[in-house]
Amino acid sequence: MKSLENTTIEHFKSHFQGDVVLPTDSNYDEVRQIWNGMIDRKPSLIARCKSADDVVMAVNFARDNGQLLSVRGGG
Question: What domains does the chain contain, in order, with CATH numbers?
């Protein structure tokens, strides 16, 4: 998995309607938690989509930048 450049992240954030959470954000640990506490993943970026367009943009961003992708639906 490639590391993300700050300019790449900023470009994504400027076009994304939802929230983007990064490891440097104070709420990162809270946001990245999932129901199974045995799994401890630390994504390079968390995209909290607000629309179908955000979902498309997030999937395309991950693909175009060589990032692994995990989807969480329903909350």
Answer: 6-64 (3.30.43.10)
User: What pLDDT shows up at residue 13?
Assistant: 96
Contacts of 5 (CB under 8 A, 6+ apart): none
Strand ranges in 1-75 using DSSP code E only, listed in sequence order: 19-21, 46-48
Q: Give the count of beta carbons closer than 10 Å to the beta carbon of residue 16.
A: 19
- Which has the closest alpha carbon to 2: 74, 66, 52, 58? 66
What pTM, to 2 d.p., does this model score? 0.84
9: which 2 tokens? Answer: 């992240």
Would you say 42 and 32 are in contact if contact means Cβ atoms under 8 Å apart? Answer: yes
